[in-house]
Specification:
Layout lengths: L1 E5 L3 H12 L6 E4 L4 H10 L3 E3 L3 H6 L3 E4 L6 H5 L9 E4 L6 H8 L4 E7 L9 E5 L3 H7 L4 E4 L6 H7 L3 H17 L4 H21 L8 H4 L6 H11 L2 H15 L10
Helix pairs in contact: 7-12, 8-9
The chain binds NADP nicotinamide-adenine-dinucleotide phosphate.
The site of NADP nicotinamide-adenine-dinucleotide phosphate has 27 residues, from helix 1, helix 4 and strand 6.
């Protein structure tokens, strides 16, 4: 399959690198010419990546076209590009459901929205695909945990639920910083906490969904340190506050990008 990228910015670059790291390579990747430095660099780095002279050339030679510009750049980028009805379109554009994209890329009609998160560069983390389009699932297979969802009216729930990335790192850094104030050098503190968090995530992933509710209780001893920290934070309203913050973004935020800088 030939996959063409319109937009070679932060997230495309992460995805292209992850695709190129997969053990089984197949097909080639075409790059739009903007972001000259990055598209030239990727084409030089990977023999299966080719930088094209125009957006139309990318579309003409691709079986699947990935839309990866910012939402506000979409209309201009697509205004003079013609698609074919046999093409599949995979859109990274946040806040723009696949039915809306389909109207812009007609006569191409098989369109999916994807939500890749930055960890995809390491081939990790969730990759939402909505709705199921077999070619898209095949093309992105092996890039983290692919989660296929049909109902586009609920994509916003996924976007908002992943809006705790910077909070997670703040939490991580607070614990590391606290250890430093208590006499542990930063390097040792970081190695200790990062490994602890990785272990907890691994246990979470290995636990059946119906048992996830047991994990807090299984990771504390009655009257022990973990119970005390969780109770203190619970009494201060922490967990309810987190749900309220998610409600706030769901109800009020203008959705542009799950980019941590966004
Ligand atoms: N970053 C994330 O973690 C993330 C995650 C999920 C989804 N997304 C979505 O992915 C999209 C891209 O995000 P990003 O963070 O990668 O943005 P970005 O770094 O700003 O990249 C945007 C890219 O689009 C290019 N572009 C702009 N206008 C174009 C046009 N007319 N034709 C072709 N290319 C054009 C830009 O080129 P120039 O540099 O020359 O302007 C740049 O290469 C957004 O819609 C965002 O909502 C991002």
């Amino acid at each position: 399959m030939i996959i063409g990228f319109l937009g070679v910015g932060t997230i495309s670059t992460a995805v292209i690198r992850a695709m190129s790291d997969r053990p089984v390579q197949g097909g080639s990747i075409l790059l739009s010419p903007r972001s000259e430095h990055m598209s030239t660099q990727l084409a030089a780095e990977f023999p299966h990546c080719r930088r094209m002279a125009s957006n139309q050339e990318v579309v003409d030679e691709s079986d699947m076209v990935v839309l990866a510009m910012r939402p506000q750049q979409l209309d201009e980028a697509l205004s003079s590009v013609r698609f074919r009805d046999d093409q599949v379109v995979a859109s990274f554009i946040a806040g723009t459901p696949p039915s809306q994209i389909a109207a812009l890329v007609s006569p191409a009609s098989r369109v999916a929205q994807l939500i890749p998160l930055p960890a995809i560069e390491l081939g990790r983390g969730p990759l939402l695909i909505c709705p199921a389009v077999a070619e898209v699932e095949r093309a992105f297979e092996g890039l983290g945990d692919v989660i296929v969802w049909e109902d586009e009216s609920l994509i916003r729930v996924f976007s908002c639920a992943s809006a705790f990335m910077s909070t997670y790192y703040e939490l991580q850094n607070t614990i590391i910083g606290w250890m430093s104030t208590r006499g542990i050098d930063e390097d040792t503190a970081a190695r200790y906490i990062l490994s602890e968090l990785e272990g907890l995530a691994a246990v979470g992933k290995a636990t059946p969904v119906e048992r996830l509710g047991d994990l807090p209780g299984e990771h504390q001893t009655r009257g022990g340190l973990n119970e005390r920290v969780r109770r203190t934070l619970g009494e201060q309203g922490w967990f309810g506050d987190l749900a309220s913050a998610l409600d706030d973004v769901y109800d009020n935020a203008v959705l542009r990008s799950p980019d941590p800088t966004g």
